[in-house]
């Protein structure tokens, strides 16, 4: 059995209980070395084989999984955050299917969730935005034309931009082309939940300068939207004059 595990955003104790159990029982761990906290490997068994996938191709990763399966070993494939977000797990699962190997997926706390906690922010504020857009700028991986930043920006929803910290000048320009005012609130969260985390509050127009002033060019998320501001309506759920299935309105 191969287990894909979300390692969480950084802090070693933000892995799930289930993920940690699998990790502690593993005979082989293949971890995404660029972003997974190596402290998570401290709890692995004596003699556990550890591979850093940063130095491996897809085929090499799958070869380790296939060998592990043949040797009836427990293999954990440890991904940063949650594996469903830019985790490239689909191609691994498809090759495991071809090889007739079973696998399971254990979710993790994605970095955008870890960063929300660091920001002490709520992405879905009544009257501000009820939608969260997770996206990226194109790099070597293309982004479909209909998902261009300018197009997504038109919604003025809460936006979270991954994998783009090295392209903030262009990001800022394209967000503005999509309709965000230059002074729209933005935040850069570098290494959310790691000991060297940095949070920078800025504006859409100032993204590039703000990152440069703080020496940030990777491992950061960009947040854009008025959820970072002060204006919102109170929720209906906790409104004293509003009844629902579990609570009668007070008179
Ligand atoms: N599966 C991961 C994302 C992998 S893509 C997840 O769920 O979080 C890698 C990108 O995620 C980085 O370029 C960066 O934009 C973001 N990222 C990952 N960990 C981060 C962290 N702790 N703080 C800020 N951004 C992070």
Automatic annotation (TrEMBL):
Endoplasmic reticulum in keyword set: no
One Pfam match, given by its short name, reads: TP_methylase
Q: Name one GO biological process term.
A: cobalamin biosynthetic process
PROSITE patterns linked: SUMT_1 (PS00839), SUMT_2 (PS00840)
> What are this entry's molecular-function GO terms?
precorrin-4 C11-methyltransferase activity
Q: Does the keyword Transferase apply?
A: yes
Instruction: Give the EC number(s) under which this enzyme is classified.
Output: 2.1.1.133
| Gene3D superfamilies reported in the protein's UniProt record | Cobalt-precorrin-4 Transmethylase, Domain 1, Methyltransferase, Cobalt-precorrin-4 Transmethylase, Domain 2
**Which enzyme type, at the first EC level?**
transferase
Q: Which UniProt keywords apply?
A: Cobalamin biosynthesis, Methyltransferase, S-adenosyl-L-methionine, Transferase
Instruction: Indicate the segments forming the Tetrapyrrole methylase domain, all copies.
Output: 1-207
Task: Report which superkingdom the organism of origin falls in.
Answer: Bacteria
Quote the pathway field: Cofactor biosynthesis; adenosylcobalamin biosynthesis
**Which NCBIfam families does the protein's record reference?**
cobM_cbiF
> Which family, according to the similarity comment?
Belongs to the precorrin methyltransferase family.
Q: What is this protein called?
A: Precorrin-4 C(11)-methyltransferase
